From TrEMBL:
Signal peptide: none annotated. SUPFAM superfamilies: Supernatant protein factor (SPF), C-terminal domain. Belongs to the EMP24/GP25L family. GO terms for cellular component: endoplasmic reticulum membrane; endoplasmic reticulum-Golgi intermediate compartment membrane; Golgi apparatus. PROSITE patterns: GOLD. InterPro entries: Emp24-like (IPR015720), GOLD_dom (IPR009038), GOLD_dom_sf (IPR036598). Residues 1-64 form the GOLD domain. This is Transmembrane emp24 domain-containing protein 5. The keyword S-adenosyl-L-methionine does not apply. The chain crosses the membrane at residues 135-155.
Length: 167
């Protein structure tokens, strides 16, 4: 997501480890992309060469799901458990609910981070508008002062006696 900069747009490229283009977005202000991955190094690039004058502030988040560790962690606890099947069933239920809470908390953190990014972009737009309004208000005030001074001078010149008086 582009938070600040002229036009609020940027190019985005995502390349696979084989060098294939997976995602290519031109002049987008935000985007969400989901990709099935394979082993290797991926490359992503935010490109602003079309707008060389203005710089951009970018927010991005990389979320990796199902890294393969969850299945191993779930099986590790079973070697420490001894007892009846009823006990195993209760431990599995507890583990399932803990994993559910963990997944929901993780999703909540991701959503809050995304909302913070939206808020930051809106704040930057608002501050830009505030500066622009203040600048043009000062210009307008200056024009009004000059016009009022000219009007006072013109009115004063209407009532001046321009005849030379002889005494």
């Amino acid at each position: 997501q582009v938070l600040d900069g002229a036009g609020l747009d940027v190019d985005f490229h995502l390349l696979s480890p084989k060098g294939e283009t997976l995602v290519f977005d031109e002049r987008k202000s935000d985007g969400v992309h989901t990709v099935e991955t394979e082993d290797g190094d991926y490359m992503f690039c935010f490109d602003n060469t079309f707008s060389t004058i203005s710089e951009k502030v970018i927010f991005f988040e990389l979320i990796l799901d199902n890294m393969g560790e969850d299945g191993q962690d779930q099986e590790d606890w079973k070697k420490y458990v001894t007892g009846t099947d009823l006990l195993d069933m209760k431990l599995e239920d507890i583990l399932e609910s803990i994993n559910s809470v963990k997944a929901r908390l993780s999703k909540s953190v991701q959503i809050q981070t995304l909302l913070r990014a939206f808020e930051a972009r809106d704040r930057n737009i608002q501050e830009g508008n505030f500066d622009r309004v203040n600048f043009w208000s000062v210009v307008n005030l200056g024009v009004m002062v000059v016009v009022s001074a000219v009007q006072v001078y013109m009115l004063k010149s209407l009532f001046e006696d321009k005849r030379k008086s002889r005494t």
